[in-house]
Write a structure and sequence with these properties.
single chain; alpha+beta; 5 strands; about 20% strand; YBR137W-like; UPF0303 protein BEK98_19055; PduO/GlcC-like_sf; PduO/GlcC-like
């Protein structure tokens, strides 16, 4: 007996592959990154989050200095702790926090089980993305915390694509 395929009311999120995540990072590169760029990118993220009523905190760091921070309604101090943990992963690995976690999952393990790093200090969960400048490498991070990790990651990528005119 043939059963008609049932279409789910909401399509499940498709998890991007390691290759797709690496391609995002190769594509989303800045020519320069100034204090004004940090303000403009942060403001763009705040606008995206407000449109969606997303309960997030947003952070931009460059060379150890916080250049932008915003906490939207519904966010909590815990989001700031997540930002710090995700940002440290990007600073240590030079790749997005989501990609670092995905690379461990692709090897059949987890960051928590295999990285040998304190999970109270490092979190390879989506939402922190490297600020990569041409001919300079990774000089900072842009981070969102407050949504499920793939949505945090996607919000940052969407903002970077708009900001860089992709």
């Amino acid at each position: 007996m043939h059963h008609p395929q049932i279409t789910p009311k909401f399509a499940p999120e498709i998890t991007p592959s390691v290759e797709e995540l690496e391609a995002q990072e190769r594509r989303l590169v800045f020519r320069h990154f100034t204090y004004d760029d940090a303000w403009a990118l942060g403001t763009l993220l705040v606008e995206l989050a407000r449109e969606r009523q997303a309960p997030v905190a947003i952070d931009i760091h460059r060379a150890g200095q916080q250049l932008f921070h915003a906490a939207l309604p519904g966010s909590t101090p815990d989001n700031d702790a997540w930002i710090d943990r995700k940002r440290r992963v990007v600073e240590r690995y030079g790749a997005s926090s989501y990609l670092v976690g995905a690379r461990f999952r692709a090897k059949g393990t987890t960051f928590e089980d295999s990285a040998r790093l304190d999970p109270d200090t490092y979190a390879a969960h989506g939402g922190s993305f490297p600020i990569h400048v041409e001919n300079a490498g990774v000089i900072g991070t842009v981070t969102v915390s407050g949504l499920p990790q793939l949505q945090d990651h996607r919000m940052v990528v969407e903002a970077l694509e708009q900001f860089l005119g992709e």
